[in-house]
Amino acid sequence: MATVKYKPTTPSRRNMQAPSFDEVTKFSPEKSLITKKKKTAGRNSYGRITVRHHGGGNKQKYRIMDFKRQDAEPAKVIGVEYDPNRTAYIALLENEAGKKSYIIAPVGLKDGDVVYSGADADIKPGNSLPISAIPVGTFIHNVELYPGKGAQLVRSAGAAAQLMAKENGVAQIRLPSGEVRIVRLDCKATIGQVGNVEHETVKLGKAGKTRHLGIRPTVRGSVMNPVDHPHGGGEGKSPVGHPGPVTPWGKPALGYKTRNSKARTDKFIVKRRNSK
């Protein structure tokens, strides 16, 4: 994928870089695989804001994805589409019986390709296999954590994990963050790297594009009043007045570990992403 640059006809256009959508071949979603997506504007069931800076944005329909890949029949790719709900592109599959489904489109997958799911599938992008059937060193995505639950790891644009080792019924997988994690061999994974690799080079360029994504403005704490934020108050520009920056609720904002020190899944982590 390449990005498109624009002539600087306005200040916002000067720095804007948009995706070229070269990989996209189908421009309308499959009606049988879309459902309503309700906006919450960051509010919980009591109507209280629990996630700030959410609200507005363009209307979206959710594409029903097949993360389990339990259909053993070969399926043909009939289109690659843009999905507003994720950074990766999605591929529409149709099997011999006419059943359609969406999967995340890996690098190199194109219209007309046939993908398989099962232990006897070839090692090629888009095929889904149990980790026990995947050779060590292979790059994978859409990794399950629990057999049959569906893929939970490595699903965003350009992401790829690497199968590092297999022994005693488990595999060691290096995730894109650098963390090495243990996963059962009977969990499934998909071969290849997630497509839309250059997503991280996209520059929105203007505030309006951020609003289209449903993101509302973020106000700095230093320009608030003391009643609203610990950084607020003072005459003119003032320092934060703390050993380090803090959140609106007084918690450290940089380097503060939020993971439970007694997390049940600690035993599955072989190497932390930030360990030397």
Task: Give a written overview of the molecule.
- With 276 residues, the chain is mostly beta strands.
- The protein has a single domain, classed as Nucleic acid-binding proteins (OB fold (Dihydrolipoamide Acetyltransferase, E2P), Beta Barrel), CATH 2.40.50.
- It has helices at 11-14, 207-212; strands at 3-5, 17-19, 34-36, 61-63, 75-81, 90-95, 100-104, 114-115, 128-130, 139-141, 143-144, 151-153, 161-167, 170-174, 180-184, 188-191, 269-271.
- The strands form five sheets. Strands 9-16-10-13-14-15-17 form a seven-stranded antiparallel beta sheet, with no helix packed on it.
- The relative contact order is 0.14.
- The model has no long low-confidence stretch (mean pLDDT 93).
By secondary-structure content and strand pairing, the structural class works out as mainly beta
Integer tally of domains: 1
CATH homologous superfamily - what is it?
Answer: Nucleic acid-binding proteins
Low-pLDDT segments: none
At CATH's second level, what is the architecture? Beta Barrel
User: Helix amount, in percent?
Assistant: under 10%
The averaged pLDDT comes out at 93
Distance between the termini: 34 Å
Stated plainly, the CATH topology is called OB fold (Dihydrolipoamide Acetyltransferase, E2P)
Give the total of beta strands: 17
Tell me what portion of residues adopts beta-strand conformation: 15-25%
Q: Strand arrangement, largest sheet?
A: 9-16-10-13-14-15-17
The total of helices stands at: 2
Profile the largest sheet.
7 strands, antiparallel
Order of SSEs: EHEEEEEEEEEEEEEEEHE
- What does the radius of gyration come to? 22 Å
> CATH class, anyone?
Mainly Beta
> Which term fits the overall shape?
globular
